[in-house]
Amino acid sequence: MSLLAFLPAFAPFAFSTLVVSGLASKALHIGIHIHSLPFLYLVIYSPTLVLPEILIITCARLLLQWPAPETKLQWLSTCVGGILGLLTWGASAIQFGFFIQTGAEVAWNASNSFLSDPAAMKILLSGISTVFAAAAVLGIAAWLLNTQVYNLTGLGLQAIQDLLLSGYNFCRGGYQTRYTLLSAPSKSWINSVDIRSARRAAFVVAACFSLLFLELVRPAIPYDHLSAALPLSLLDAFNKKSSTLGGCRNPATTFPLWTDVDPVPLDEGWSRPSWLPQNPPGGFRRWDVHPDQRAESDNPSWYLCGGGDDGGFYNPKADPLKISNLDRGIYDPLKKAFEQHAVSIDHVILVTLESGRKDMFPMQQGSPLFHSLLDSHPDEDRDEATDRLVEMTPVAQMLTGEYVKNSKGKPVDLRNATWHDTAQKNMGGLNVRGAVTGSSLTFKSILGSHCGVNSLPVDMLEESLLEIYQPCLPQLFEAFNQAKKPQVEPSEEHIVEKRSLAPNQSESLKYPWKSVFMQSITDDYDRQDIMNEHMGFRHKVVKSTLQDHESKYRAEGEEINYFGYAETELKPYIRDLFEEAAINKTRLFLSHVTSTTHHPWETPEDFAMEHYMGNQGNINHGLMNNYLNAARFVDNWLGDIMTMLDEAGIANNTLVVFVGDHGQAFGEDNRDLTGTYNNPHISNFRVPLVFRHPHMPRININANATSLSIIPTILDMLIQSHSLDERDSEIASAVLPEYQGQSLIRPFLPFINETSGSKNTTERDLTPLGPEYEHPHFKSVWNFGVINSGGAIMSVMAANIPYRLILPIQEDFEYTFTHLGDDPAELNPIKAWTLSDLVDLVETKLGDEPAAWLKDAEKVGRWYVNDQRRIWGYREA
């Protein structure tokens, strides 16, 4: 087929898809942010917002010009124009599909991390139906309009060309008449000039200069972001960034609010700690290598390289945000139990609850979520709906001690639960109310719970390529093992060093630890397998194990989502592991991550679905109903785990920690934005945190803590309960103060009051903070939350203040302020594109105190972003 025969059909359609898709995408782009834009400014600068589209449309129309001589150049221009149109069509469909699913817009600069990861591609493909639907609508519109759009654009360009030529001729004629001296122009010349065309040309020139003026004077934020054209934004997907550790860390920068620390350099009075094993696991290297020897180390990441007195590494003595509570007394009921040797901890299990929300662990009346769930039902059905909802998570009730009541005010019947708690009344451990996650990206959150470190505020799991700056739990247990000689594999017959034990200490203190990681889904998403190795896990059971023909137990069910299988496929592996711990004299550390409560919230076919949601309102309640059923499935699974512990006979000497990696926002929480991707809503951050032991008194702790407290609490429990021998206790006691989090077996300190005015004072007033924000007297615990996918926006909170700032790391996002005391569901956030505008709005609506805190929070957040990159030794290449 000749090109001239092909062009009449293809060129107009390709051009129309570019115009329709590009302008529709721009309308969506502006519409998402329109509520935060001053109306007058939007009207004034609106012509500049579509200027990039106009330029691209003009270029595309010239590329797809026809009829024209059939030449190689014409073939090339048609191919380029056609590809540009089809790419814009596809990208716009992706944007609309993503918006329909989540209410957010695609961040193209983070997309290559997904495109290069096969497991991540499954997440993207899970929403392919909405993308195809959007593509179909855009394609039909482009097809119906292709002739009109193509012809009208061509006529417009021709008219502009004619106008400019007329203006040029007019100017050229006027230039020539200057040299007629004082003689008047001839009548024939006047008649030859089209005055009307010249005026039109002048108007076009004036409009162009006006657009140029508006482009130059408009504020960069947010209008540069809003004016970005879709084809140009696609280029961000090809800007691949990689993390590097060039051997040097930058010196620490001055903290913006206070300087009450007197840092002690790491090399001052240095000597190798006596407790450090000869060949310590990763995470201990800053104790192992003297600063003067770091340049000779095999690992170049330990060079000093001008990083300040501490080499740029994390130094708790120089951390302006660290508040320790280790000098505070242990809660009296716990202290009594520890002194009586009533608590024995031979094994530790850490269960990470995927998308685990605190307001559903357990589900109970009174929360904003519960009210919104009931709103889906008519009034006459609400009692029945209430009873179904409160019966959904019986195991969570027993684990937390938060026993709920039904619509008649009676306790929920727990007899049908998959586990029955044998702990005595008022026993069961610590239940933390108010915990928030450090990241709404699962694996970054796991770094906090397993390693006690803050995550990097960059997209995806770049930490997997870097040295984790604290010892993770498997590394701590391996350090305990290395102190026991001779060293043997946990699965072998154990011959351990003969050591004297204190009175009442168990023989189990001599046994080695075995660290195992288990999940029923793939571990190759976003380099999780690499990170697990860096954390020190040497044994694992994951999806590949369940599919391996040589495995002891192969998966019997079907895969339930794009990641893998239901948790119940792990049951025989966990049962064997518990029995091994009981019989083979092994101390177990098991890390288990659930997954069923991850999108798309599918459950096995033999799991009976309940109808928790009604049909009231204009929200699709089906997604929430699936999530609630998935949460009930996981609750049953947690009961299975606890039952297996009982059956193996190790429940009474096992500490089980339950923590949510992050929450999960739905339309019932926030109609504008759902999911976790670039969604800062508070429902994505409130998570359960429970330390379960049947011989520990039940204590409810109201603290805005994070998963940074998990390792300090576990170590403190092991030490105080005499569950470590003398050597291991020495190691645990030495590293415990190094972690950034506080121990939760002691009263949590959300702030300290610098009453003396001295920057280096050691005596502080610990009286509770009043309602006033009295900076700089109060030094707060700051909680930072990295928001999925990590590098765009961040949550900033202070543990003693009910305010929350969403801080944009990139300029493409808005500042957001909420008062969680007055608005716990964040229904009325205050947004602005600049900090100064947000401060003005907050001051006007809420007063001086929140505005003062907001300015401080922004400074602390900016400092934190840079300091975390310094601590991790992260650079972008």
TrEMBL record:
InterPro entries: Alkaline_phosphatase_core_sf, GAG_Ulvan_Degrading_Sulfatases, Sulfatase_N
Keyword Transcription: no
Name listed for the protein in its UniProt record: Alkaline phosphatase-like alpha/beta/alpha
Residues covered by the Sulfatase N-terminal domain: 523-717
Domain of life: Eukaryota
Pfam family, one: Sulfatase
SUPFAM superfamilies (alphabetical): Alkaline phosphatase-like
Lineage: Eukaryota, Fungi, Dikarya, Ascomycota, Pezizomycotina
Gene3D superfamilies: Alkaline Phosphatase, subunit A
UniProtKB keywords: Membrane, Transmembrane, Transmembrane helix
Transmembrane segments: 40-63, 75-100, 120-145, 201-221
